[in-house]
C-alpha cells in the first residue's frame, strides 16, 4: 500500500489544511511548487522578473481565495500560469501598435501638410504628457523617450518593476484615448496624397 504516500494525497491533505487557514501547509505547497510555477511562466515569457511576479501572484491568490477548493493543484497551477501569461501578453500587445505608429510619424516629414499635422500632433502629445501625474510622466519619458528598460527605471526610482509597468500602462491608456484618433487622421491624410 505505497500509494497512500503518493503526491496527490499529500497535496489534497495540505490543500485541506490551507482551506482551514493553515499557513504552514500553505508554505509547504509554496516550497514544493514555486520553482515549477516560476519555470513554467519563464518558459513562456523569457523574462525573470515577470515570471517571478506571475508566480507570486498565483500563490497570493491561492491564499486569498483559500476557501475555494482546488482538486488538482498541478493542473490548477498550469492553467493559472497560462491565463496570467496570456493576460500580460495581451496587455503589452495593446500598447505596442500605438508606439509603432508613433515611431513612423517623424518619417512623414517630407510632406508639407504632414509636417504641419505632425507639429500639431507633437504639441498635443506634449501638452497631454504634461497632464499626467509627475511620476507617471517621468516614467513614461524614461521608457519611451530615453528608451530605458523597465528594470533600469525601477532601480533608478527605487520602485518595483511591476509599479513601473502599471504606470506605463495607465499613461498609455490615457494618451491612446486622445492621441490615437489624431494619429489616424494624419495617416489618412498622408495616404490620400499618394
Notes on the structure:
It is built from eight helices and no strands. With about 190 residues, the chain is mainly α. About 80% of the residues lie in helices and about 0% in strands.
Question: Which key phrases capture this entry?
Answer:
194 residues, mainly alpha, Rna Polymerase Sigma Factor, Chain: A, Arc Repressor Mutant, subunit A, 2 domains, elongated
Second rung of CATH, namely the architecture of the largest domain: Orthogonal Bundle
CATH class of the largest domain: Mainly Alpha
Largest sheet: none
The number of distinct β-strands equals 0
Q: Name the structural class.
A: mainly alpha
Question: CATH homologous superfamily of the largest domain?
Answer: RNA polymerase sigma factor, region 2, helix turn helix motif
Describe this structure in a few short sentences.
With 194 residues, the chain is mainly α. The chain has helices at residues 7-19, 23-45, 48-64, 73-104, 112-130, 134-144, 150-157, 161-193.
Task: Give me the secondary-structure topology.
Elements (H helix, E strand, L loop, with lengths): L6 H13 L3 H23 L2 H17 L8 H32 L7 H19 L3 H11 L5 H8 L3 H33 L1
Amino acid at each position: 500500500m505505497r500509494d497512500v504516500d503518493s503526491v496527490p494525497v499529500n497535496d489534497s491533505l495540505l490543500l485541506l489544511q490551507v482551506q482551514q487557514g493553515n499557513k504552514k501547509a500553505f508554505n509547504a505547497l509554496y516550497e514544493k511548487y514555486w520553482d515549477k510555477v516560476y519555470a513554467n511562466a519563464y518558459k513562456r515569457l523569457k523574462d525573470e522578473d515577470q515570471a517571478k511576479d506571475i508566480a507570486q501572484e498565483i500563490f497570493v491568490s491561492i491564499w486569498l481565495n483559500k476557501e475555494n477548493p482546488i482538486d488538482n493543484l498541478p493542473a490548477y497551477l498550469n492553467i493559472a500560469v497560462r491565463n496570467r501569461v496570456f493576460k500580460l501578453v495581451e496587455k503589452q500587445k495593446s500598447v505596442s501598435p500605438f508606439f509603432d505608429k508613433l515611431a513612423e510619424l517623424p518619417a512623414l516629414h517630407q510632406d508639407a501638410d504632414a509636417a504641419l499635422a505632425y507639429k500639431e500632433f507633437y504639441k498635443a502629445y506634449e501638452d497631454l504628457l504634461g497632464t499626467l501625474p509627475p511620476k507617471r510622466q517621468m516614467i513614461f519619458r524614461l521608457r519611451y523617450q530615453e528608451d530605458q528598460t523597465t528594470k533600469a527605471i525601477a532601480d533608478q526610482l527605487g520602485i518595483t518593476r511591476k509599479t513601473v509597468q502599471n504606470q506605463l500602462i495607465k499613461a498609455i491608456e490615457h494618451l491612446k484615448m486622445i492621441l490615437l484618433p489624431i494619429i489616424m487622421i494624419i495617416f489618412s491624410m498622408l495616404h490620400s496624397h499618394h
